[in-house]
Design brief:
Number of domains: 2
CATH superfamily of the largest domain: Zn peptidases
CATH architecture of the largest domain: 3-Layer(aba) Sandwich
Helix content: 10-25%
Largest sheet: 13 strands, mixed
CATH topology of the largest domain: Aminopeptidase
CATH class of the largest domain: Alpha Beta
Bound molecules: zinc ion
Number of strands: 19
Oligomer: single chain
Structural class: alpha+beta
Order of helices and strands: EEEEEHEHHEEHEHEHEEEEEEEEEH
Radius of gyration: 21 Å
Number of helices: 7
């Protein structure tokens, strides 16, 4: 069997059996101080693949931070076969400002990969992160939430046409997988294209720790690590039901037909049937109601949280289900109800 290998980055080597917390300089402030990103590298005593876990590429998306921190600092890593590279806060300036994008120029760090050492501040930062901590890995998990003011059910975004990526996505064991290559410059796309199969996990809303979602994601991380042989104590999960939505599958952001205040009648993750009234938009006098109906039977993958809309603002993200998945969901929901 191969020997376990050290993990190296600019300025450091982490030996097998060693865990190291690093504050890695990715940029400088206006005052010339270092902008330092927290990194934890857990190098197992036994050989195996290297897996990265990243969060807060968008600075206000917090759920994933707690997932990454718990994996790094609360799990028992005795017997780990491989290495975990844990980056709970990728976008430090945006995190400090509690904004989605890098402050000042509003650059999206998650459109700046793989980065460039001679380009914008975002691309320089992305370059440092990419080359030191992401490109040397074998598998990647990148945690996100919905944009501020909306919320997502926990789901995976992955290029299911790529068998290596599909292996990671299936092992994560979420009910819903939305298949796409992902936008150019996104961490997931650029890593997958350079041979590190990477998925995005969307979970909940910005500015929150949402414990049930965090716990569920942690179970799924165990499942991925089991699939790739890092932890023999865990097993690969099956989520009970699964739907994979590809480019041909029907999915739509339902947008407001009038401005007003929104009364949402469903929660994220709910099944709605064709013609169900998903939400009602009212004027300030409650004299006019606009009923927004489901154009087809499907799953509410995302919904708005902030109940104020202009015409054209998104209300919910609805994806069509095939009959088999619909029946599986109905059966699972009934089983859940029986538990009470
Ligand atoms: Zn995000």
């Amino acid at each position: 069997m191969d020997e376990a290998e050290p993990f190296t980055y600019d300025g450091g080597i982490v030996s097998p059996g060693e865990t190291r917390n690093v504050r890695y300089t990715v940029s400088e402030t206006y005052l010339g101080d270092a902008v330092r990103m927290p990194v934890t590298i857990v190098n197992g005593e036994r050989p195996g693949p290297t897996v990265f876990l990243t969060a807060a590429a968008h600075g206000d998306e917090l759920n994933g931070i707690e997932v990454v921190r718990e994996v790094a600092h609360e799990w028992d890593h005795d017997g780990l076969a491989g290495t975990l590279v844990c980056l709970p806060v990728l976008n430090v300036p945006a995190f400090l400002a509690q904004e989605r994008y890098l402050p000042i120029y509003d650059r999206d760090l998650n459109r700046s990969f793989p980065g460039d050492p001679d380009s914008t501040s975002a691309k320089r930062m992305a370059h440092e992160i990419f080359r030191n901590f992401l490109a040397p890995c074998d598998v990647g998990l990148d945690f996100h939430t919905s944009t501020r003011g909306r919320t997502n059910m926990l789901h995976v975004r992955a290029d299911m046409d790529d068998p290596e990526v599909a292996r990671v996505a299936n092992a994560f064991a979420s009910n819903v997988i939305i298949s796409s290559g992902g936008p150019s410059g996104s961490l997931r796309r650029e890593l997958s294209d350079s041979g590190v199969p990477t998925i995005t996990i969307e979970m909940g809303e910005a500015h929150r720790f949402q414990r049930p979602l965090i716990d569920s994601a942690l179970e799924s991380v165990r499942s991925v690590l089991a699939e790739f042989g890092l932890r023999s104590s865990d097993t690969v999960r099956w989520p009970g039901w699964r739907t994979v939505i590809d480019d041909t599958g029907e999915k739509t952001w339902i947008r407001a037909d009038s401005g007003g205040l929104v009364d949402m009648h469903y929660h994220r993750g709910d099944l709605v049937y064709e013609d169900d009234v998903i939400c009602t938009i009212t004027n300030p006098f409650k004299t006019e109601n606009t009923l927004m109906r489901a154009p087809f039977t499907g799953l509410l993958v995302g919904i708005l949280e902030n109940p104020l809309v202009y015409p054209g603002n998104p209300l919910c993200h609805l994806v069509r289900l095939d009959d088999r998945t619909q029946r599986a969901i109905e059966w699972n929901r009934r089983a859940d109800d029986d538990d009470w």
